[in-house]
Amino acid sequence: MTSVDRGARRSPGAATVARVDATRSWRRVTVDAGGDGWFGLADRLADPAGLDAWYAAELAGTGRDHRDLAGALIVYRFSGSLAELVVGPLLEQRRVVLLRPDNLSLRLAENARIEALSVAAPVVAVLPDDPDAADPGTVVVADEAGLRAAAVDGLIAVFDPLAGAVRERAPFGLRGMWGTLADHLVDVALRRARDGGSDPEAAWTIASALLDDLAAGQPLLRSRPTRHAVACPAGTALFATKGTCCLIYKTNMPADRAEGRGSAQPWIDADACTSCPLRSEPDRTARLVRYLTDRAERINRG
Question: Per-domain residue ranges for the chain?
Fold first, then answer.
């Protein structure tokens, strides 16, 4: 039993969340929302002024007065943290943290970046052979499909109302928001597999099955990431090309170009994510080869 488990052994949910948090130095997840800067998701969704302030902070910060980018950033940041909290346990612990707006809290850092998520008194869905299956803090499901169903229910419960609130304020479509969530779910699965040395094909299969179930429950999820396998002298790895652009390339783009006057390509080339679907495949491959090379060099030095 690890120190994480000993510190939270009376709560399988707390132990589950702590194991996820122990593997990341950013996108923190916790069960303790005490202190300044936290707000409950349900409270914020019920507070139009608070939602306006959140959007305004993105608009004035990284969004640089691009209204669509400001909305996309809220969704992007939330999706990334949510994916860690959902995919991490599903992939590595065969568990799912049950999520609702009233048990999820957020803490924002500078420029409206989500610094942490917190789940209050978390309950986890587990399989019958889980060592904590008899604990009152767990809900036993029959099989892997049951775990995915619990994950989908939680994702829809917390993501759908936030997406609706963002759409009321920003010209970024709901399909793009659900596509952004899909991109993060797969990206997190593959990254955690790379970092943990586990099978990337198994991670892809689990994440793809989760997206299948999520799309069945939310028809707006239409754009999905695609496989991008890379092989080079530094190694081989499986990555995902996003199905949806997060618009981050607009942060340094002048307003007249963002409004459609002139080509956006120079800003895409300079500032878009490596996995952006607006990049060419050769460009993405070259960038990923550099990443694998740099990673191999760091490992060899360490």
Answer: 3-223, 225-302
